[in-house]
Each structure stands twice: as C-alpha cells, then as structure tokens.
Amino acid sequence: MRVLITGFEPFGGEKINPSWEAVKDLPEKIDGVKILKKELPVSFKGIKEKLPQILNKTMPDIVILTGQAAGRANITIERVAINIMESKKEDNDGYKPEDEPIFKEAPAAYFSTLPIKRIVKSLRNNKIPAAISNSAGTYVCNTAMYVALHHIAINNLNIKAGFIHVPYIPEQVLEKPQPSMSLEMIRKALEITIKESIKDQ
Amino acid sequence: MRVLITGFEPFGGEKINPSWEAVKDLPEKIDGVKILKKELPVSFKGIKEKLPQILNKTMPDIVILTGQAAGRANITIERVAINIMESKKEDNDGYKPEDEPIFKEAPAAYFSTLPIKRIVKSLRNNKIPAAISNSAGTYVCNTAMYVALHHIAINNLNIKAGFIHVPYIPEQVLEKPQPSMSLEMIRKALEITIKESIKDQ
Amino acid sequence: MRVLITGFEPFGGEKINPSWEAVKDLPEKIDGVKILKKELPVSFKGIKEKLPQILNKTMPDIVILTGQAAGRANITIERVAINIMESKKEDNDGYKPEDEPIFKEAPAAYFSTLPIKRIVKSLRNNKIPAAISNSAGTYVCNTAMYVALHHIAINNLNIKAGFIHVPYIPEQVLEKPQPSMSLEMIRKALEITIKESIKDQ
Amino acid sequence: MRVLITGFEPFGGEKINPSWEAVKDLPEKIDGVKILKKELPVSFKGIKEKLPQILNKTMPDIVILTGQAAGRANITIERVAINIMESKKEDNDGYKPEDEPIFKEAPAAYFSTLPIKRIVKSLRNNKIPAAISNSAGTYVCNTAMYVALHHIAINNLNIKAGFIHVPYIPEQVLEKPQPSMSLEMIRKALEITIKESIKDQ
Lengths: 201, 201, 201, 201
Hints:
The structure is a homotetramer.
Chain A: E1 2-8, H1 18-24, E2 29-30, E3 33-40, H2 44-58, E4 62-68, E5 75-78, E6 80-82, E7 109-111, H3 116-125, E8 130-133, H4 140-154, E9 160-166, H5 183-200
Parallel strand pairs in A: 1-3, 1-4, 4-9, 5-8
Antiparallel strand pairs in A: 2-3, 5-9, 6-7
Helix pairs in contact in A: 1-5, 2-4, 3-5
C-alpha cells in the first residue's frame, strides 16, 4: 500500500505554508505503509496539469491533500469539492478566475472518499481540535481536491482521496489576533489522518 | 528579588485552567530569581480577601497574575484594570455581581506597572503571538488585577504588577472551533514575561 | 411568468423567522410577474415530501428559497447545495441526521441556476451588503435547495432555482452581539433578487 | 436643560461617519430639551483643544459623544475611558501616538456618568440590539470621552457625560462581511439615549 500526501508552497505573502512544513517531516513509513510526499504549486493551472500526472506516476492507494486555512482554529476535514474556481487574490501564477468551472461538463461536486467522520473522532481522541468542513472554498485547495477526485472518477481508479485544511502556525500570526496551531500538533494530526485512512483499506 | 506568579483554578465547567497548568510547572528560579507560584480561587470575594494576604506574606518585587481568556488567540498583556465587578455567569462561589465597584471610593482604574510593550515585543521575537489588551473584562481576572494594584498603591509598596491572559489549550476546544495555544508555548510565554519584568528592576 | 418564493417557519427557539417575515409581505406582482409565497417547515422529511408537491402544483418559472443564517451579516446568495443531511440540533420534527444523503445514488451537488453574480451586483448597487456563499450548510436550508434542484433536474423541468440566506433581524439579537439586518432591507433584497431573476428569463 | 450630542467626521478612508450622519438629523428638541449638535474632528490634538472649548461655550447639562465602531454589531454604551492614546493608523492629522497619556499626572480612567445600564435596557425594550462595552479602545473616541470627563472633573462641572459607539451602516459594508445597523435605527437609538439621560437629571 502507498499513501501520497501533499502540501502547498507558500502564497499570499507568507514565507512558509504550514501544510508543506508538516508534510515534509512526516516519517517515510507509517504503520508499515510507504508515505510519498509532494509539494504542490499554488496555481490553478499548475494543479490541473500536474496533479493527474503525479497520481498516474505514483499510483497511490490513498491521496491526502493538505493546505493552509487562514483564520480556522482547528484541523478541518473537507467533505466536498465543487467544480468552480474563483478568487479575489491572484494565485502564484498571477491568475484570478471568476466563476469559472474547473472542468466544463463535469459534475458539480465530489465528496471526499476518506473516512472523514472517523478521522475527526480519532483526532479528538488524540486531543487535537478537529471538525468536518462543508466548504473548501473556491481557491486552489478546492481545485486540487476536485481535480484529484475527478481524475480518480473518470479513470475508475481505486484510490481514496480527500483534503485536510490546517491552521496557521504561531509564527505566521505573531502580530495578528488570528488562531494558530503548533506545527508539532499539525504533523501529529496528519499522521493520525494517514493511520485512519489506511485502516479503511 | 522574588517574583510571584499566579494562575486560576478551573471555572465555567472546564476541568483545567491553562493559566495554572502553565504556572505550576515553571522552574523554581528564572535568571537567578526565585519564582513563587500560587493558584487563586475564581471568586470575587476570595480574591479580595486572599490576594492582599498573599502579597503581604510573600512580599514579592514583581507579581504576574495570569488567567484564561476564552476566545482569544494570542497571549494578551492587560493594560488596565477597572473598578467594577460584573458577570452574567456565577463565580465558583455562586456570586454574580452587577455593576458593583470592587472598592467604593477607590480610583476608576489602575494601569499595569509591568513593561507591557517590551513583553509583547519579546514574545513576538520568540515567535509567540502576543498583543496588548485594553480590557481585562469585568470578571474575576480584572478584579484580581485591580485588587493587586490597589493594594500596592494604597500601601505604597514597591511591587510591579500586571495581568497576562492566556488562550485555551487545545484539549479544551476539541469540539468547538475556538482558538487555542499549546501549553508548552503558554509556559514559555510566561517565562519570557518573567524575564522581561525582572530586567526592569 | 410565475415566481415562487419561500421562507421558513421559526426554529431553534426563535419566535419568528426573518425569511418568512420578509417573504410574506412581498407584493403580489413584481415587474408584472405573479409572486407566489409559501412558508416551508423546518423539517428534513417535510421538505423532501412537500417541496416537490409544491413545485408540481404551482409550476413556477423561477423558485427562490430563502432562510435564516444565524451569524451572517449580509445577504448571501448560495452557490451550491450538497447531497447531505447533518445536524447537531434537531429539526422541528425532532430529527437529527448524521452524514445521511438526501437522496441515495443522486449527484453530490447542484449549482444554483439563478443569476447569482448579477444578484450580488444588483444588491450592492442598491446599497445592500451581499455576497456569494459557497456553503448552505447541511441543515434544512441546504436540503430544500438540493431537493428543489434535484426535482427540477430529474423531471427535466424548465425552472430556475436557488437559495438566499438572510441575516437575523435586530429584534432577534437584542442581547447578543450578533449581526442583523433590518426587515425592510431584507424585503427589498428579496424584491431585487426576484427582479434580477426575472430578467434572465 | 441642554443636551450636547456629538458625532465624528469620517476617517480611515470612509466617506461618511454614521455617528455624525445620525446626530445631524436629530430633532432640535427632545422631550422639551434643547439638543445641540457638533461634528468633532478625528484628531487627538483637535479633541484635546476643541472639546473643552465646546463644553465651556455650550455649557450643557448632558454631553453624549458618539463614534463609529468598526466590526461591532450593536449599539455599545461605553463604561470607561482610559488615559492613553495609541493607534496603528494615523488620525486625520496624520498623528499616530504610541502608549502616550492623554494628560500626564491625570487619573488612569473615568467612568461614564450617563445611566449606562438604563440606556441599554431602554434600547432593548425598543427592539434595538445594545450592550455595555468595557473598552472604548485607545483611538480618538476614547480620547474624546476621557477629555470630556476629565474637563468636567477638574472644573467641578455639573455635567453628565459618556460615549456611545454605533455600528457601520449598510452602505459602508456592501462588499465586506461585517455587521451593520440601519441609520434609522442608530438615530432612534440616540434619541432613546438622550431621553434616558434626561430622565436622570
């Protein structure tokens, strides 16, 4: 079995992205399962091009995409990705879509195929604040989740996939009264997410 | 030189109070200065009775009161305590004052005599989110800060005093989307606060 | 042409529901188009049973569902309804689903077929705070939006449909620091929403 | 008897200030009492110079200062003004004080001498969301409240004084999800505040 877990590069003026900071130091194996790690670009077009290639190349059994959710206080397990790209802020390529479908003629949405309820329960049992989220927004995170699930669906692949949003880490909010979570706790949350996802297989 | 640092007992249905959790494990000495630790009751009357006694008994050079601030995301250094007690929720003695002065005929307010700006700067330099707060509320925390500063003022004592509010720790907000901070970071924040306060003397 | 516009009955301990308060006093005709008004039950099962019947009976060209969104400060035009029912609070029938599809084997989501972007623009032009929302939640509002769009889709009906969330009105938040909007402004917002939706036809 | 009520000029990039918009259209007399209205500059220095002059010239029995509170959802009756000026944003004179007393050697704070609890109760009875606030911040609003109360105190004047913060009005938040209140309701709130303050005399 193989798990692919991704984080994003920094964006929006931040120097780091806590999702990739947490992913990059995960162990190589968890519960005997190989963990592949990839840093994804904060680019609508980049995601549409590269994420299917990465999936084809690595052929994981499980793919867990992670990203930074400014303002959220807990680990949020996304329930659904919707077929829309919209942003007031440019992505790292300078692109700023408005009300644009990710793929024309494709389904309105896909639900996560990770065991989202069990992940939340396991995180809380491990003293990590967590909840289901019903919107991954319309920025690159949602696009990544949609692209992965759509690629899996249209190619009939046997891959479970979903998205985890993580809070800022403290060093990103030194001067702003915004919630954060320690990098250590985020990393532990991702390990637990992987363990719960593996159990399902 | 002696530093007295206090935390509160749990209240409002919580099982722990992060202020006391952080205080109780501080080292016995910081920068060569003896650290005295006390757990305070969440009681308007208890504070008015016991805090002056504790100050008289321990005769510290510096007193740092700490308490839990539900909903706040960062360490907040209180600027001012006001002469009022008011609460919609009962304290741990079942008391619920409305618009009642802490002491009649006493000043409207006292400013913290800790180096509040330097503490904020030092916390941020140590990668801990921090800010000045202009209101310690009207619950027992504000009362404690006011009682300490008033006792010092009317007795002409040479003691610096102030109040630090700390966020929830993660285990308190497992199921609610409220900000928290790791206990380890809170403890480090209190150590830095003590170090900065000592420098002043 | 006929427009059907609905509001919900009160729920969650509230005495009124601002959505129905605003809907019930709309004029009988707007821009020459007949306006039909219905109050819907806050009931997952009730919505699944009655909403298709109402649509079959009234056969509107446009259906605008409206509901109360606690905590939101502006008029929010929902973009998407998802195939899930989940709630920690009971509906008015005492039902509290967890992670349950509205319809098994049905699409994950439907997008609103109202001109959502133009409605937002027109509301703002009329000095009414407004925005697109990417989540109608997982309570009865989302269910109503999904049920309407699904009924229209599977029966190939030529009806545009969507959902508008409205804030509390001031009398609901007298003692809580939560955003509200005047009933007059909400009513005006619904009129503008109807006018913009009609233009499309 | 005479009531002086003030609002502020716009600041921070806003085109209007809801406090002055509401004040300027108040009737000339309320319950038989003459209402004097003044627009104040958003200037730390301007307030310190002009507000005492205005008080000396108009010699009101009651002075009600009002200002805009970005982000607040209800009418807030300020309890206390503190002897500090601090701001990250410049005032309309380009001044940006840091941790500076309004007056050296002056008291730390003054409590409002308006019947703040009765005002809140009366507003709520009139279906207007309202609450006591324990901090008027450290910007020009707090300075105005402090300057008025200090001037009254040191000159032993028989004037009741206090500060009312009002929310944004809807046209200020068309594109941001921030709370607002209709100008009509704000105006009504100020009338009720005046009526309650008069009763006290």
